[in-house]
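Lab notebook page, bench 4
Experiment: in silico fold of construct C2
Operator: M.H.
Input chain length: 150 residues
Purpose: comparison with the prior construct
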Amino acid sequence: MGRSDEFVMIGIIVLIAIWIYFAFRKWLLEPTSLRYIPLNNDIKESVAVQLLERAGYEVIGGKFRIPFHFTVNGDDLHSRLFVDLVARQGKECYLVKIARDRMPIDWTGSGVRNRLLAYFLIYGDCAGILYIDEKEQQIHKIQFQFDEDD
């Protein structure tokens, strides 16, 4: 092996070490919740996206689904949850749900729990859920906390 081969090998090792350093640093500085959310780059321009951007949020992910299955009396059932967008404000990450006419939300404790708690339980590292009512031009920020005792 010649002297030039040694320099090439050392150069390759140095480049790999630099790449590993920056990849690790990026991973370390990325908010925890974003590590586990499958970010979809297919973000369609919409009223919801405009509302979020005007409110100081950065839309970083488009619609994705969360498939799951469960067993009831021995029968396997399959379902899925849909997240409409993923937004970030500073280092805080939010899942975004857009209001649908056919599925109105009941703004009571149990109504919000029944509609949105599952998202928080799956992605608990997120700062919360942003529920957007495009007709009313409103963003509702929902943050769940568990009480010690009731």
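Observations: Residues 71 and 77 are 6 Å apart (CA to CA). The radius of gyration is 22 Å.
Next step: discuss at group meeting.
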